[in-house]
Amino acid sequence: MQQALRPRTATRLRPTAVPPPRAGRPVRSLIDADAIRVLHRAARVLQDGLPDLTDRLVAVLQEEEACYRSAMETEPVATWQEVHRSLGHSIASLLDPRGARDGARRCTWKIGARRAEQGIPLDALLHAFRLGGSLVWQGLVEETSRTAPEDIRLLVHVASDVWNFVDEHCTLVAESYRQVERQLAWRRENRVRVLAAALLDGTSRIADLPEAAEVLDLPESGRYVVVAIAGGHPAQCADARAAAVPPGLPVHWHSGADADYGIVLVGDGDLPEPVIEPTGPTAGVRIGIGGVVEGLAAVGDARRLADTALTICPPEGGAVRLADHLPAALIVTSPELGAALSHRVLGPLAQLDPADREVLLDTLAAWLACDGSAQRAARRLYCHRNTVLNRLRRFEQLTHRSLARPADLAEITLALTARRLLRPS
């Protein structure tokens, strides 16, 4: 009633101990002595002819279940021996229900565990057990009909006991199978997490890359981008995942302590612009999209780029693509230098009243955002164009910098960026 296939791995998972029989269900019902005598007489004949009975069951299994055909091709001796052992326990349980029960249950429990390791479908395994039960019952009937046809009627009294035994062991083998199946699933999920975490941390070993590529379903070669998502509640983050990566791009998501990371295969192109909007149900969710790296081994570098982009995101939510914010990335990756530049350029404004200082800096930021147009900046700030120009001239006088000089303008822009990004929360 079972197949002998060795597991693919050297270390076998084993479920916990075989559960005890359910209380209140005797092995066999109360039957008269004559019915027991008929059952035992036929069962002893089956026991003596156990090799032939094993051959019959193996032939039926080969015909009706593909996985058993494969087993007989790869390990015919081991398969036959295990079918023989299982049938032996079944017949022994008919002759000595109390004494043989524990051994039969242990045998069945091991079968379920082994089949789960081998990945044989549970339906096929249960079918094999029922075929074995049918063959044993058929053998009991045939032997009684041959030697004492008048006793056939007595077998009716033991039929329920035989099939109760089969049902009990089908339940047992299914419990064992499912327990090991859960253990295997946990191991697979945990291995996936470990391999993905190592890639993102940049600690993955070269020898582990082929396995990582297989379990993540991503090629070792190829161009990758990492997307980092933080903030919001789980449902918002799930929406952000779908919105941040366009359909059709292969991606593996990994949940980290502070952010969710998507390892995205972008092929020969670049990652398109994210379609997420920092409003509505995704408000408060921050998305950082790093730069492109070559190969799965460089995913750790891609994650650091995504973290940099995530740092640039405003606290209220939004999406930042690193390639579009490289000056800001320079600031957040060297905060000490950014703070020094901000102090050097904007330090002279410290002598002003805070409200006055904010007016000058807000005007400068609006002018830069409007591409140096005082007219557009004035509309944004709800003031006159000349007011904007006067504030800009005052800024130049206080800082001794010229907005018309390219070198000064670059330093001023970076200093404003550093002030915004490095300002304490």
Q: What is the second-level CATH architecture of the largest domain? A: Orthogonal Bundle
- The CATH homologous superfamily of the largest domain is called Globins
- Proportion in helices: 55-70%
Amino- and carboxy-terminal Cα gap: 68 Å
Spans of at least 5 consecutive residues whose pLDDT stays below 50 are 1-11, 24-30, 275-281
Largest sheet: 6 strands, mixed
Number of helical segments with 4 or more residues = 16
Secondary structure class reads alpha+beta
Cα-atom Rg, whole angstroms?
37 Å
The portion of residues forming beta strands comes to 5-15%
Shape: rod-shaped
Summarize this structure briefly:
This protein is 63% helix and 7% strand.
Describe this structure in words.
Residues 51-191 form the RsbT co-antagonist protein RsbRD N-terminal domain. Residues 360-418 form the PucR C-terminal helix-turn-helix domain. It comes from Streptomyces flavalbus. Residues 204-312 form the CdaR GGDEF-like domain. This is PucR family transcriptional regulator. The two termini are 68 Å apart. Strands 1, 2, 3, 4, 5 and 6 form a six-stranded mixed sheet that branches. It is built from 16 helices and six strands. It has three domains: 33-185, Globin-like (Orthogonal Bundle); 212-324; 335-422, Orthogonal Bundle (Arc Repressor Mutant, subunit A). The chain has helices spanning 33-48, 50-64, 66-74, 76-95, 97-118, 122-147, 152-201, 209-216, 234-244, 299-312, 326-333, 335-346, 354-369, 374-381, 385-399, 406-422; strands at 223-230, 251-255, 260-265, 286-289, 293-294, 318-321. Helix 1 (33-48) packs antiparallel against helix 4. The chain has 425 residues and is of the alpha+beta class.
